[in-house]
Amino acid sequence: MAMSNWRVNTFLVLLVLLAGGIGYRLFYLFATSGPELRQRAEAQYSNQQESAFRRGDIFIGDFSTQEKTLVATVKDFSYIYAVPKEIVDQTTTRQLLVEKLGLTVERVDNIFSKKEDEFEVLIKSPTAEQVELVKQTNLVGVRIGSEPRRYYPLGEQLAQTIGFVGHNEAGQKTGQYGVEAYYDSELGGREGPADDLVLTIDKNIQTFAAQALEELVKSMAATGGSIIVQDPQTGEILAMVGSPSFDPNNYQTAKLSQFVNVNIQSGFEPGSTFKAITMSGALDKKALTPTSTYTDTGVVDIAGYQIKNFNEKSFGLQTMTQVLEKSLNTGAIYMEERLGDDNFLNYVLDFGFGQASGVDLAGEVGGDISNLYSKRKINFVTAAFGQGIAVTPLQLINSYSAVANGGKLMRPHIVKAVVHPDGSQTQTMPEIISTPISERSALTISKMLVDVVDHGFDKVRITGYDVAGKTGTAQIASPEGGYSDQFIHDMVAFAPAFAPKFVILIKLDKPQGLKFAADSLSPTMGKMTRFLLNYFNVPPSRE
Q1: How does the average pLDDT of the chain come out, rounded?
Q2: Are 477 and 203 in contact (CB under 8 A)?
Q3: Domain locations in the chain as residue ranges
Q4: How far apart are CA 9 and CA 3, in angstroms?
Q5: Measured between alpha carbons, how far is residue 457 from residues 441, 453, 517 in Å?
Q6: Among 103, 164, 372, 489, which lies 20 to 30 A Cα-Cα from 518?
Q7: Are 409 and 402 in contact (CB under 8 A)?
Q8: How would residue 530 be classed by pLDDT, with cut points 50, 70 and 90?
Q9: What pTM was estimated for this model as a whole?
Q10: Would you say 507 and 487 are in contact if contact means Cβ atoms under 8 Å apart?
Q11: pLDDT attached to residue 156
């Protein structure tokens, strides 16, 4: 009996020692390994941002100061997280999370139920006030962490051009849209250390264009629009704005349609701005001259259709210059007929329409000139005045830049230089895509476009300068066929016309109140032209 008691007592002592050892081990792990485990959990969360952490910066230039402005970088952002296994005072914690931080009761109860969890993100992008509240409350189990994320200082202003950093299907950080997608390998360091980018965008021109577009869209109650400024000599894009835009710092809250860069990913029927392209071909082929005449009766019957001028009036005997000045549809048809269908198509292609320009931005589309391959005459004559074909704003401005640049079509580009980690740079060199018209033809059409501004657009005329330009007003095609009662207004201009420093395109979607682009866009075009002539210190080109 005594032996049995001894055995029982011995067993109880061993059991107590074992329990004590286990308890000590658990205490030791909690005290020494707990922080490590939390760090590991936080690291796993932060590793989701690894590609963004290593991502190169993006800069834009400033002609006036020659300084660079940061427009995309990596920045540490705070987040609020919980360590459920450390939460002791559930009542006070629930009050903080629900009443102060705005979490739902269901979310908080779910967190409390994960009693062994080391890490639960509560708020990924808290406000400064929320962060300060957590710090002041200092509740056990609720903490502030930080992670590196992509940050865009200019917000909406360059969003569609730059794009943003999101997740691919595998959950990895990757560039989405615009420059971020096109140069994802360089920026993300996929093949080595991350590169920085310097864009051709000028800070001051971009800011002016963004403000101008915002005011224009608002004043005309338009659904959207775009502005591009280009250097015709090099193809550099000095400004690119699209509306509506989005905040790339909070891209998750935007609609998918807002990510689309309307300047390269959305085609439209340009209307009368395309008449300058038709005329350029006719001049280059020597089918017409600026003084060639035809008799405008106000209507053309062709292939069973009646085509009229925009105001349904006739103007009698007209020169080709007057056709552009008055923007006569019947005159554009006359140009195309003298040029011939095959030649017309060739010039359209040589000017870059119906194909991607090759700009270094993700997602560019080539427009749509498929109607011209049908060989139906009606499609050629309507295309002559910009209907029945679709072009992108970038294609249109680039074609006018070719006229401004002596007939040389340049490849448009948005990145001026790729800056490598060792400080060396890879510069983007100007590249000629084609030469659609001769230098003589380019000079002639430029003179005609100066006459268009001089005799039709008083708000674009600038004393002492030759300004060339043309407007377009096109009905929007209806999904059911035919055309709706909504319009797109566009205008392209360059100055000084015979030594151009810049080309400007303005496009407005579904403006209200004014029917024609000459009325809706001229004031903004004049304002932008004056700004740029002054900004570049361009001397007067005429007395």
Answers
A1: 89
A2: no
A3: 203-535
A4: 10
A5: 23, 5, 11
A6: 372
A7: yes
A8: very high
A9: 0.87
A10: no
A11: 93
